[in-house]
Amino acid sequence: MEVRFPSDERPPAWKIAFLQYVIAAVFLCLLMGYWRLQIGQHEQYMDLAERNRIRNLPVIAPRGRILDRDGRVLADSFPAFSVLLLRESAAEFTPEHVAGIARGLQLDVQDLRATLQRTASLPRFQPVLLKQAATLEDISFVESHRVEYPELDLIQVQQRLYPRHQVAAALLGYVGEVPEEMIAKLGSSYRPGDVVGKFGVEAEYNHVLAGVDGMRRVVVNSRGQEVGELSDKYPQNGNDLRLTVDLDLQMAAEASLGDHAGAVVALDPRTGEVLAMVSHPSFDPNDFAKRIDPKEWNDLMNDPMKPLMNKSIQAQLAPGSVFKIVMAAAALETGTVSPEFIVHCAGAVTIYGHLYHDWVFEKHRSHGAVDMHKAIRESCDVFFYTVGKMLGIDKIVTFAKGLGLGARTGIDLPSEAAGLIPSPEWAQRVFKRKWYAGETISVAIGQGAVSVTPLQVAHTIGGIAMGGVFHRPHVVFQDQLKALGQDPSESSPSDFPLSENTLATVKSGMWAVVNEGGGTGGAARSPGIEISGKTGTAQVVSQTLEQSAKSSSEYKSTAWFVGYAPPDKPEIVVAALVMRGEHSAVAVPIVREVIKAYFDKKLGPKPPGNQMETQARVLSQLSPAGPAEPSKPASGQ
Amino acid sequence: MRKRFRASDIDWLLLAVALAIAVIGVVEIYSTTLHSPLAGQYKKQIYWIFLSGVLALVVSRLDYHMVLEQTPWLYCISLLLLAGLLVAGHSIAGTRRWLQLGPMSFQVSEIVKLIIILVVAAYFADRRTKAVTWGDLIKLGICAGIPAVLVALEPDLGTALTFIPIVAAGVLFAGIRWQHIGVLCLLGILALPVGWHFLRPYQRERLMTFVHPAQNTQSSSYQVTQTKIAIGSGGFWGKGLGNGTQSRLGFIPVSHADSIFAAFAEEQGFVGTLLVLLLYFVLLLRLLDGAQMAPDRAGAFLLIGLSAVLFFQVVINTGMMIGVLPITGIPLPLMSQGGSSLLFTFLGLGLAMSVRARRYVN
Fold first, then answer.
1. For chain A, how far is it from start to end, CA to CA, in angstroms?
2. Closest CB to A38 among B173, B234, B292
3. Is some CB atom of chain B closer than 8 A to the CB atom of A25?
4. pLDDT score recorded for residue A90
5. A224: left (phi over 0), alpha (psi -120 to 50) or beta
6. Mind listing the pLDDT tens digit for each residue in A131-155?
7. Fewest CB atoms less than 10 Å from the CB: which of A240, A332, A537, A632?
8. What is the span of the domain harbouring residue B100?
9. List of chain A residues whose C-beta atoms are within 8 Å of the C-beta of residue B236
10. What is the ipTM, given to two decimal places?
11. Which of A2, A4, A37, A88 to mutate to test the interface with B (most CBs of B within 10 A)?
């Protein structure tokens, strides 16, 4: 073996040994690094790896439908896509990143940032809803930016659809994103972006209609594509809810109220079932099903006619002469006057040194000799001024409250107003003053501080027509609630028994309002149907002010009519309120039409073509854009 | 120079360790590419291991002096090849690294690595001063610098960087004055801004990610995060072969090539990490042991250069996986998928065996 170089010319051995030690030291450091990751922080990285590959995708449970009493669909759901933000898949939200998402989904950057801030405290595995009713552009943006924005995903949701648009909107209510307070509530299962009922039946029966969302745990790859499924918790669908409302009646009521601002309530006085409930002007709840844009919302909120208010249960207005029924019942039942008691009406009367006009005074007329029957029929103010003075405020209050006024009826709808029956205690409590005797005289004809809701009017008159049995108004069949395991609210009718004689006099008075000459509600007469009722025209402000501001529509009187049929065994009671209607005559035909529709349907089915025509007419009247927009998959049921 | 073959001429331990690492690599490539478009790559890797192993045995039978004598024209050919690649190279994914030879494509820079080792060894075989002079440093700098620049232009910064430890190890072992080290360090620091200027945007981003890991959320920091998640989630025993979710679902980029160690650590856990690092450690010590016993300067410098570059690659590759070093495209020798890298490593090991076979035994 040839050795070219002497051994001492090789690099010194210590250097090689040193390099070996260096290698050993570096490898030790590397091992420590791996130890730290694989042993020390294993749990944390295992968690991250799982989050990487597993996504929890909610499966939105379809909300139950709302049906009318015959099973016709009033609120439905249709599939749509929502854009979700899966925060566990996101690296970090830099401003550019957020701006990129906002641009891609055409969201407001500020809004998006606020949403992120709001949801920052929630567990990261909970997805955040970024956009409902995703457009085709949104969907393609998400699909094509899986790598840039792996945290975005789409889920199929059920979007609310109200096939009949404005019809019964105030009754049905609308759905929207769950408010912050509800999410924050202890034990709340709501996530931001969840859809809940916000108003009307949707809100009241949210627990029935809403299902329980499911959850899919899926395996995704680095591009966010699903490659497998780990588990699948199926969603529990919401229950369909059948209302007591009859769509045919509802349509008739919508049509007959037409463009008037006001409300119509139809009840079955035998059970308290709400057969129709209309509030105009209306709104289209479909606008709320996707996120309503701020302008639309402001328009609705600032509309002086308050379309978002269910006037049937929230409008509190003076009942005017409708209140005379309560007065008559009180006067007769307490024996203050007998049915034969006569008052001479000269068109005005001076009580407590003050001149009180009758409504006919303006026409330079008077009612002459008036007994109870005639007083109700012709709505004689002077008669009831006199009776009111004789009764005194305490008895009036007792009967008004006993007959269901000045308190919530307890209908199964949110935000019902109580109305007001003024009393000396009320004056003391609210105004810290004593009761003026003259106030009793105003109250006697349903003016002054008396205020009622249309529902109360229907409820009270219906109860009197039933002989003093008041069934709690409701829009959902109690049997259905029981079947669903819900505890229906207390439903035993409240009694305020009235004597046969009182009832006979009051009811014959109300029959005469419609059916006798001189009755104020003659316009309610309808061939083949006997209707009883009572008119009311209530001033919005004092007489003097009205005269000075006569031109202004804001001070036009409120028109009321409440009617029931048949007079002896009532099956339906309808109250109509026309705000700024000026005269009760505006309200009378509305009630007549609804009652007519009720009996038309009951006694024989109309040819279907006719009915369709009515519906089309109503729709074209309600939406200025014409009948249902063709782009929306409106169901034709 | 021919002599009779003896079994002890072959360094069986070195060969066994190298083959063990390569086989682990094949298994991991199989696991991580299964059900992916790259499935079947492991077969290619096996062919390359076989070919490279046979070539290594052939080389081990050659006298390394004879190989060293070929250095000048080998060097010239490699320069021509590198320049030719830049002019007319086959571009894959925006880089011109590949030389097409029939059905095989081949990364020239890997073989240039070996030639640089030969250059350094040949240079110091004839220089027997106590310490290198400025002249030596400049000559070596130019010899290694030209191919380094050509490789960096491909662009393949990672491989170009591997030339540094080869030259540095040679210079350190030949002896260098402290003043020279000081001046070189100073020059290096001064060159940094200039170098930064020449970096491509993605390379700058990687460096910045390393300096400020939290600032870069996408791309490069994403890669580091994902490899760390893969390794950390492996735990002590690992998730088991074929169960690495990070690698299988594509969270680790190129999990069969440069990032194979992360995929391996995910599936085999700390136990696997320990085993493979131990194998590399044995490999390196064995090479340096050979350097210790080399019959002459040429053999010693050959082994030192080879161990230096392998050590550098192992440390950079495994270190960047756990985020302690910036990301560069440096394959893990013997494990990463890629024929050129395997060929380079096995040829180097063949030379090492040739040196060891002629060891100086007391």
1. 105
2. B234
3. no
4. 64
5. left
6. 877 888 888 888 888 877 878 888 8
7. A632
8. 7-357
9. 38-39, 42
10. 0.92
11. A37
For residue A444, is it within any domain? yes
Chain-chain contact of B288 with A20 (C-beta, under 8 angstroms): yes
Q: Is residue A11 within 8 Å of B294, Cβ to Cβ?
A: no
Does A626 have pLDDT greater than 60?
no
- For residue A433, being part of any structural domain is answered with yes
Strands A73-85 and A241-242: unpaired
A222 touches chain B (CB under 8 A): yes
Q: Where are the beta strands (DSSP E) in A94-213?
A: 128-131, 152-161, 175-177, 195-197
Do A236 and A332 fall within a single domain? no
Report the predicted TM-score, pTM, of the whole model to 2 decimal places: 0.66
Q: Are strands A66-67 and A241-242 parallel, antiparallel or unpaired?
A: parallel
Closest CA to B305 of B153, B203, B170, B105: B170
Same domain, A226 and A356: no
Q: Which of A9, A19, A36, A89 to mutate to test the interface with B (most CBs of B within 10 A)?
A: A19
B343 falls within a domain: yes
**Number of domains into which chain A is organized:** 2
Mean of pLDDT over chain A: 84
pLDDT digits (tens, 9 = 90+) for B159-192: 888 999 999 999 998 888 888 888 888 888 888 7
* Rg (alpha carbons) of chain A, rounded to whole number: 35
Contact A376, A519 (CB under 8 A): no
* Host domain of residue A87: 60-160+212-242
Q: Closest to A30 (Cβ–Cβ): which among B222, B250, B277?
A: B277
Instruction: Tell me whether residues B229 and A45 touch, CB distance under 8 A.
Output: yes
B362 belongs to a structural domain = no
| CATH number of the domain within which A133 lies | 3.90.1310.10
Give pLDDT tens digits for B289-323: 999 888 888 999 999 999 999 999 999 999 988 87
In a domain, B224, yes or no: yes
> Is A222 found in the same domain as A140?
yes
